[in-house]
Design a protein that fits this description.
With 176 residues, the chain is mainly α. It contains six helices and no strands. Helix 2 crosses helix 3. The structure holds zinc ion.
Length: 176
């Protein structure tokens, strides 16, 4: 396959001509002369036509693992970025709803758990090794830690409605 990819036209044209001429000699008992040359040219044309068709179809026939990742990666990254924003927005909204007593604590915890599961899926997907990865991961982890009531300075867990850290006294509200 490498050889064909390197010299596709030449190799295939010669092969087509050879096949046609062998057919001419074997089946029609043609001796070397104009008819055989014409037959060879016909085979060459057929082979080049086949090559043109192959080139058109090539992108659809390729091994999926050989597909270029370059042009597709940024699209996937944008999708993940959108998902991440949606998750962060959702977390902010339920935090606000909970603080305004619009939702019960049980619902708040349940929703938070779901958002956290979704965030973990996004992080796993980003684990492919982009430069973006650690950035998004840190942001998400920080946000999730805060949503869970963890102190941004010392990381100790506080009640979700606490304004100051019970361990270091750091302000919890400011970072939200
Ligand atoms: Zn603290």
């Amino acid at each position: 396959m490498n050889l064909i990819r390197k010299y596709p036209g030449l190799l295939l044209a010669l092969a087509g001509a050879a096949v046609a001429m062998i057919f001419g000699v074997a089946a029609s008992r043609l001796s070397f002369g104009p008819p055989l040359v014409v037959l060879g040219l016909g085979g060459m044309t057929l082979a080049l036509g086949g090559l043109a068709l192959y080139r058109v179809l090539d992108p659809f026939l390729g091994d999926p693992s050989e597909q270029p990742v370059g042009p597709q990666a940024p699209i996937r990254r944008r999708e993940l970025e959108r998902d991440k924003q949606a998750v962060l927005k959702g977390i902010r909204e339920i935090e606000l709803d909970y603080q305004m007593r619009k939702i019960a604590e049980a619902d708040y915890r349940d929703l938070l758990q779901r958002y956290r599961a979704r965030a973990m899926r996004i992080i796993r997907e980003l684990d492919a090794g982009d430069d973006y990865r650690s950035l998004i991961e840190d942001e998400l982890k920080a946000r999730l830690a805060m949503a869970a009531g963890a102190c941004p300075s010392c990381g100790s867990t506080n009640d979700t409605d606490a304004r100051f850290c019970k361990k270091c006294g750091g302000k919890l509200e400011a970072a939200r």
